[in-house]
Amino acid sequence: MVSTADGTTDRTTDPTADHRTRLTVLVALAANLVIAVAKAVGGVVAGSPALLSEAAHSVADSLNEVFLLAALRRSRRPADKQHPFGYGKERFFWSLLAAVGIFVMGGCFSFFQGVEALRTGADEKFSGYVVGLIVLGVAFVAEGVSLLRALHQVRRQGGGLAGVRDPALRTVVAEDGTAVLGVTLAAIGMALHMVTGQVVWEACASLAIGVLLVYVAYGLGRTARDQLIGEAADPETGARIRALLDAQPEIDSVEALFTMKTGLDSTLVAARVDLMPGLDSERVEEVAVRIKRSIAHTVPEADRIFLDVTDRPARETRESPAATGERGGA
Question: Per-residue pLDDT averaged across 48-65, rounded?
Fold first, then answer.
């Protein structure tokens, strides 16, 4: 964290938290690579569509872990002339690619395997069932270990799953949780196929895995999209900033307040304020610097703070495009 002349800060992501997240991602990557090979070999040997669907799922997860490692490295770069607000949104971009990977490589392939099994059928020997179930058992243990590692980090950070702000960690938790459920579905489908001799059970398991992956991909993609477009800070943070501005004796009224998350631990704050009459230019500058420093102290994630001093009537300001969100706002 580096202080600037106006009292704002230039912040990069907490390196300690990044190190823990990177370790979590590496554990997930190692588990998925081993499991993907085992599932693919077992799926071919057993001729199991559900197992092949799970192999595609693990391949997609492995590629996504590579995306997340890239996000962790690239998002730590400091701001420069080309990107004056830093590279914090790199995390959101690579998380969006991970969601697309889950949808295309995992969900679509699982649907394909399920439909093909229903269309052509599948004959398996008893030895094929045994191989498939053993592979799924090993996969369940490996995915469970990876999931426990991710959940352990979530607990250390506090706030529970709903409070996970890091898109890389959130993606790993979603992937590993989905993988455990997917392996369970595949095992149930294979066991029912073995007992009844009806391939429809494995086909339905493959289709269910596809639905699960598409649902998870949609959820992750929607969150990443909102973050890339530009999400406002949470209402509590916005309320704290407005309360601080309202409490300043030199401010007559706060005409507009805007916030936007520019990274995992960084937020842009822009406020249009009407100052009390009679302040000279030097006094205005002194007040602006003090207010910025107060905001940065009260809200540590606010690392880009802009104040626009205006003497326009409050009603005119509130009805301006910038305050209403219409196109063309300043």
Answer: 76
3-state secondary structure 291-314: HHHHHHHHCCCEEEEEEEECCCCH
Nearest to 142 by CA among 232, 48, 27: 27
| CB 91, CB 168: distance < 8 Å | yes
User: Cβ of 15: how many Cβ atoms within 10 Å?
Assistant: 10
Query: How far is C-alpha 267 from the geometric centre of its chain's CA atoms?
Result: 16
Pairing of β 302-309 and β 266-275: parallel
Q: Which of 267, 282, 287, 330 is nearest to 8 (CA)?
A: 267
Q: Tell me if 147 sits within 8 A of 175, measured CB to CB.
A: no
Q: Are 20 and 153 in contact (CB under 8 A)?
A: yes
Place of tokens 């610097």: 289
Task: Look up residue 144 and give its two tokens.
Answer: 């469970």
- Which of the four pLDDT bands, split at 50, 70 and 90, describes residue 234? confident
φ, ψ dihedrals at 14, nearest 5°: -55, 115
Residue partners of 26: CB distance under 8 A and separation at least 6: 65, 69
What angle, rounded to 10 degrees, do the helices at 200-229 and 109-120 form?
160
| Over residues 113-122, mean pLDDT | 76
Which tokens belong to 129? 């069932």
Query: What mean pLDDT comes out for the span 60-73?
Result: 81
State the greatest distance between any 2 C-alpha atoms of the chain, in Å, as a whole number.
90
- DSSP E strands in 148-221: the ranges are none
Neighbours of 270 (CB within 10 A): 16
When mean pLDDT is compared across 3-12, 110-119, 259-268, 278-287, the lowest value belongs to: 3-12
Q: Residue 37 is inside which H or E element, if any?
A: helix 15-46
In Å, how far are 53, 139, 260 from 37, measured between CA atoms? Answer: 12, 11, 42
- Does the pTM surpass 0.90? The reply is no
Question: What confidence tier does 175 reach under pLDDT thresholds 50, 70, 90?
Answer: confident
